[in-house]
Design goal:
Oligomer: single chain
Order of helices and strands: EEHEEEHEHEEHHHEEEH
Strand content: 25-35%
Strand order of the largest sheet: 8-7-11-10-9
Number of helices: 7
Helix content: 25-40%
Structural class: alpha+beta
Number of strands: 11
Radius of gyration: 22 Å
Shape: elongated
């Protein structure tokens, strides 16, 4: 940060893994250009002789356009920061009217305390027939599909749920999903082949629900189950229960 920004920039640590930058005597257009460039710079650190890439999320706000004092300015920048995090991190955004600082609390609770601890693979994506967009996948989903990180998942799928479906099944699966929704049944259980990071496919059963989000409109919450694993684990138990009941 010291190497990139001018000498009159005020740099500081804001606790934990957060830092803040104050750019005085700078127009919004000039700040936007600098911050976008800084966000996109390749960033690495070395550990035990190996280089590792990392990314940043950055939100910023203009004084006095959106804030009358230091505290308000920080809250606005914070709201923009967590809007970026909800979109998959590794980006930069200016504060605008309508962003809520409460997003930080919602993100921390909904995604970390619930999604990461769900006993199954889980994703969230935009419910749009022509323009779906992946927003989030939990650790269980990444482990099931072999993606090293959310960034790798977004990069290899171009942030599209459609690209997670085996190509010869895409039209049929999407048709089935929207047929269920249009008939009022939402997204029931659907069986298809899910693309893994190495290009192979995993037979899965998904169960989704369409939810109205205040910020993103209609989104899908989807849980995935390994189809073959379910058959191995539960087919014998199911058979035993049926036999037991018939006796």
């Amino acid at each position: 940060m010291k190497a990139f920004f001018s000498s009159d920039a005020l740099l500081g640590r804001n606790g934990g893994d957060e830092f803040c930058i104050l750019l005085p005597n700078c127009t919004l257009k000039e700040a936007d250009k600098q911050l976008q460039q800084f966000t996109m710079l390749p960033k690495t650190f070395s550990y035990h002789g190996e280089k590792h890439t990392f990314y940043i999320s950055l939100g910023y706000a203009e004084y006095p356009t959106f804030a009358a004092n230091h505290s308000q300015l920080m809250r606005c920048a914070d709201a923009a920061l967590y809007e970026i995090k909800l979109h998959g991190k590794n980006g930069c955004m200016a504060y605008r009217n309508g962003l809520q600082s409460g997003v930080r609390k919602q993100l921390g609770f909904a995604l970390k305390d619930i999604s990461e601890h769900l006993p199954g693979a889980f994703i969230i994506y935009r419910a749009a027939k022509e323009d779906d967009e992946l927003f989030y996948a939990n650790v269980e989903f990444l482990h099931m599909t072999g993606y090293k990180s959310l960034d790798e998942l977004f990069r290899l799928t171009k942030k599209s749920f459609r690209n997670l479906i085996r190509e010869d099944e895409q039209k049929q699966i999407e048709s089935n999903i929207w047929e269920q929704i249009d008939s009022g049944n939402e997204n029931d259980y659907i069986h298809f082949h899910l693309r893994k990071a190495d290009g192979t496919y995993l037979s899965v059963l998904d169960h989704g629900r369409i939810v109205e989000s205040q910020q993103y409109g209609k989104v899908f919450y989807v849980l995935f189950m390994d189809w073959e694993d379910m058959q191995i684990r539960y087919s014998d138990k199911f058979f035993w229960q049926v036999q037991g009941n018939s006796d």
